[in-house]
Amino acid sequence: MRRTVISFAALLTATLVRTATAAELEFDHVWIVVTRDAPERAALERAGLKISPDVNRHDGQGTASISAEFLNAYLELIWPDPTVSVAPGAERGVEKFKNRMNWRASGWCPIGIGLHRSGPATPLPFPTWTIAPDWMPKGTAIEILTARDDTRSPSFFIEPPVLAVKDEANRKIDSASPASDHSMPRVPAHSMPVSAIRFPQLLELAPNSELVLFVTDLFHPLNHLTV
């Protein structure tokens, strides 16, 4: 069986070095689209991560998720859930999540990488688009950086300030007992001008393959999760 190997830290670095200092963006969280109710959570637990007991229902988006939290980031397992409502006109978004869930057959990338702004909302010099599903606070939106028709790249997006993980109120479990006792390494975005951002196919996905995600922090040995 062929393996697709991803280094969590390396993926963040490869992604964020293409983002501008002027935009002042920092890593927020990463999601992986998994099967219903996330039986893949067992891989996280075997790696020593603690899963929040809460299931997040994304009303209007048709998805649900669970998460493993670090002090300054989190890893989210998200899936299309038929018990969660889908807003009229949002059906295409649900189909995208289903294609990401079935990545072995579809070839779609199952990973999303969330950023948040650490400074003013500086406009980006390339086209973006937004989504504002029902579960989000009114008047807010998620800004999507990856092109609508790009199915092979991770979904890059910017969280609004009210949802950013840097806000203490947004942490899903108590900071005294996070998934890891340590913070994820901060990866500031500063190495290249924002005009140089490109979204190449960072992952080569093949049918009948495994997705192996390597998770590491500054203090613990490398762990790997097979999805």
Describe this structure in words.
- The protein has one domain (2-226).
- With 227 residues, the protein is an alpha/beta fold.
- The protein contains four helices and eleven strands; from the N terminus they run βαβαβββααββββββ.
- The chain has helices spanning 8-16, 41-46, 91-101, 103-106, and strands spanning 2-7, 25-33, 56-58, 63-69, 74-80, 111-117, 129-131, 142-144, 155-159, 209-215, 223-226.
- It has an eight-stranded mixed β-sheet.
| Helix count from the secondary structure assignment | 4
Helix vs. strand class? alpha/beta
Give the end-to-end Cα distance, rounded to a whole number of Å.
Answer: 13 Å
Number of strands: 11
Instruction: Give the low-pLDDT segments.
Output: 4-21, 185-205, 214-227
**Overall mean confidence score, pLDDT:** 75
Query: In which range does the helix fraction lie?
Result: 10-25%
C-alpha geometry: globular
What is the H/E string?
Answer: EHEHEEEHHEEEEEE
Strand percentage lies at: 25-35%
The strands making up the biggest β-sheet line up spatially as 3-4-5-2-6-9-8-7
Gyration radius, in Å: 17 Å
Q: Main β-sheet, in a few words?
A: 8 strands, mixed
Number of domains: 1
